[in-house]
Amino acid sequence: MTDAFKALRADTIARQEPRMTTTPAPQPDAMNTVTPYLVVDGAAAAIDFYVAAFGAVEHHRLVGDDGRVGHAELVLGNSRIMLADEYPDVGAISPTTRGGSSTSFTLAVPDVDAVFARAISLGATEVRPVADQFYGHRQGTLRDPFGHQWGVSSPIAGFDDDTYASSSRAAGFEWQQGAAAAGEHDHQVKHHDRGDLYYFTLPTADLARAQAFFGAVLGWRFDDPQSGHASNISAPPGGVHLGNTQAELWFAVPDIHAAVALVREHGGTATEPVHYESGWSSECTDDQGVRFCLSVPAPQYTR
């Protein structure tokens, strides 16, 4: 079983190639660039806990002939975690065996108080209570029954970089923005003002036919036959998508949480903002039921 486990871990690492989404929509089967791998003493019970407490969905598990889970994958929102039972002979040891873990995880949820309370009722232990934090999230910290520590968190609406900087100073920290973050902010401000249409897709029942049609009529180029993204459209970029019955439009905003609050204030509806590889996104309707999406685009989706 040891050799099989080693081969399994090597295979899962090899499969974690970054896959770029072609539209700002969740890709539940796509791998994130970095994926946490948990080792637990009692993987089957841990899977049940994460499903019940955090709303995870089990993707699959591999069970060895000795009954241990050699590998499992769970989907939480737009993210995925992997886990396995202990295999001490190859150094796979859980926090309960080690006497504690040096790694913690942050779980973004729409209602931190409800999720935190549910996890506690299912056997988690409170480390720090839920409270509004200076860094712009309402967050509490708990330790799950298997020794892993989770920060359960919901963003505070309207919290921007300026607020973060001032609240950090009040808490005794100097807020310093990295070059990558500064470049992302400048790029988005320069190329996407509030309300700009920055991405669109058109619905189709046959992706190949749609690619052929719009390629011939409008000159759209599809470099990937499995993707609806037209690689040569720049103002704004867009393409086609399978399955839906209407076009989808994404409008750029500087603050997704503030924009969602305005949608609701003026009679529309909006889902809680979610951060994807393509940036922050929320699905909305106006006060007459017309669908649209709001987003703070990631750099690869700006021009």
Give a written overview of the molecule.
The chain is α+β, with helices and mostly antiparallel strands. The chain folds into two domains: 2-155, 2,3-Dihydroxybiphenyl 1,2-Dioxygenase, domain 1 (Roll), CATH 3.10.180; 193-301, 2,3-Dihydroxybiphenyl 1,2-Dioxygenase, domain 1 (Roll). The chain has eight helices and 16 strands. The strands form three sheets. Strands 9, 10, 11, 12, 13, 14, 15 and 16 form an eight-stranded mixed sheet that branches. Helix 2 (43-54) runs antiparallel to helix 4. The longest helix is centred in the N-terminal third of the chain and has 13 residues, at 2-14. It is globular. The chain starts with a helix and ends in a 6-residue tail after the last strand. 28% of the residues are buried.
Salient structural properties:
single chain; 303 residues; alpha+beta; 2,3-Dihydroxybiphenyl 1,2-Dioxygenase, domain 1; 2 domains; eight-stranded mixed sheet; four-stranded mixed sheet; 8 helices; 16 strands; 28% helix; globular
Concise synopsis of the structure shown:
The chain is of the alpha+beta class and 303 residues long. It has helices at residues 2-14, 43-54, 95-98, 112-121, 161-170, 179-191, 207-218, 256-265; strands at 37-40, 57-63, 69-76, 79-85, 104-108, 125-132, 137-143, 149-155, 197-204, 229-230, 238-242, 248-252, 269-270, 274-276, 279-285, 291-297.
Measured between the Cα atoms of the first and last residue, the distance is 50 Å
Largest sheet: 8 strands, mixed
Gyration radius, rounded: 22 Å
* Integer tally of domains: 2
Query: The CATH topology of the largest domain is what?
Result: 2,3-Dihydroxybiphenyl 1,2-Dioxygenase, domain 1
- What do we call the CATH homologous superfamily of the largest domain? 2,3-Dihydroxybiphenyl 1,2-Dioxygenase, domain 1
CATH 2nd-level architecture of the largest domain: Roll
Helix content: 25-40%
| Portion in strands | 25-35%
**CATH C-level of the largest domain:** Alpha Beta
Helix and strand element order: HEHEEEHEHEEEHHEHEEEHEEEE
Give the tally of β-strands.
Answer: 16
